[in-house]
Model the fold of this input.
Amino acid sequence: MPDDQRPYAVLDIDATLSDTSQRIKYLAKKPKDWDSFFAHAKDDAVLDEGLAVATTLAADHEIVYLTGRPERLRRDTVKWFEDNGFPEGKLLMRGNNDRRPSSMMKLARLRTLAQERRVAVLVDDDVKVCAAAEKAGYPVMRADWGLDAETQPTLFEAQETEGRT
Done:
């Protein structure tokens, strides 16, 4: 099937493909140290399960990486993908000043993607993102192999209340 006809497989990055556990400490501070949290994203280890899912999906899908990371991290994020052997794909990032909850921001992006072609699956760790996508009719694979936002209130707050990741 030609690349422009393959359905999209949409993958989150943080706690789905990358291990954020070493930088979550920056969000536990008062006030949160967002600059350090994002500055260290380039040092994240790979979550092997995430890489395996991305590689498997790339065989039959066009990969889209959909992240709550701000646009200013594009260069570091692209380099991280290249350095760690991730399949090529389109990278959609949060606008630098976008503070919508991740579930709202990502659902809007999914709707835009779905206007181009079928979204076959969303792979994400965030339970609210997964629930919103499922409710809107998108197939979801919950990435339960990384840092779990349900049990990590610091990350969950950042994703859903502050709209920062």
Q: What stands out?
A: The CA atoms of residues 99 and 163 lie 4 Å apart.
